[in-house]
Amino acid sequence: MAEAVSHFEIQRQQMLQWQLRGRGIRDERVLAAMAQTPRERFIPAEFRHLAYEDRPVPIGLGQTISQPYIVALMLQELRIEPHHRVLDVGSGSGYQAAILAKLASEVFGIERFPELARRSLAVLKELGRGNVSIYTGDGTLGLSEQAPFDRIICGAAGPDVPKAWVEQLAEGGRIVTPTGPPEVQMLIAVDKVGGTTTKSDICPVTFVPLIGQQGWQR
Ligand code: SAH
Question: Quick one: average pLDDT of 108-116?
């Protein structure tokens, strides 16, 4: 008898084909990790039917999970190697952290809202992604107790790249984050080589605000 393939699995395959491969995502490790991560599990029941839509989806508390293409693009730009330790600032629903868990050796998520942190950890545990820990706190200050990090990724946009992240980034490390005011944001990469950092623009984007001591005040 043929195995039952869920509705969501079919949608996930279509997302990979059309939204990711079709738009130029080529990193096979990122594609495989996204193929193995059930996005619907990270989305509250009332919005779950939108899990594989080509857009951001609400996760509660006024926050959103990024559009699949943007998640893939950021992860591809992060150039993760299997031995890396990664800081995921604004871990929100935990979806991106779950994908990172497949790509890196250790993942540290930090989220401002305790309720999101708690929910995300429960799903990550159910999925057996044991190399992820989730902290509650102000991620604009990084996570000094676990630094340095080989990679830092953020799903919210601050006015500029927090100094704490650059300080907590290992030599040869890379940060991928949006920056800029709510209306005009740019996805950027920051590389640390020989103690010097260089910034490069990736593409214009729209994200929720990064709120904290080294982000927006509110
Ligand atoms: N990558 C997440 C995206 C969540 S949206 C996912 O896959 O679901 C961005 C998140 O950043 C929100 O949950 C928001 O609460 C959080 N955030 C904003 N400012 C923050 C800060 N200073 N520290 C930690 N989290 C923050």
Answer: 98
Helix or strand run (H / E) with residue 28: helix 28-35
For residue 76, report the distance from its CA to the centre of ligand 1, in Å: 20
Centroid of ligand 1 to alpha carbon of 23 (angstroms): 25
Q: What is the pLDDT of residue 2?
A: 53
Looking at residue 3, its pLDDT comes to: 57
State the CB neighbour count (10 A cutoff) for residue 136: 17
* Residue 184 resides in a domain: yes
Q: Assess whether 66 carries a catalytic annotation.
A: yes
Looking at the CA of residue 215, tell me the nearest atom of ligand 1.
22
pLDDT at residue 4, rounded to an integer: 64
Domain assignment present for residue 214? The answer is no
Domain that holds residue 25: 2-205
Mean pLDDT of 101-109: 98
Handedness of CA 32, 199, 171, 163 (dihedral sign): negative
Domain count, the chain: 1
Which residue's CA lies nearest to atom 10 of ligand 1? Answer: 90
CATH of residue 104's domain is 3.40.50.150
CA atoms of 57 and 79, how far apart (whole Å): 25
Residue 196 domain-assigned (yes or no): yes
> What integer pLDDT is reported at residue 6 of this predicted model?
87
Euclidean distance between CA atoms 164 and 132, whole angstroms? 21
Checking if the pLDDT of 182 tops 80, the result is: yes
Query: 3 C-alpha vs ligand 1 centroid, how far in Å?
Result: 37
- Residues 135, 116: Cα–Cα separation, whole Å: 10
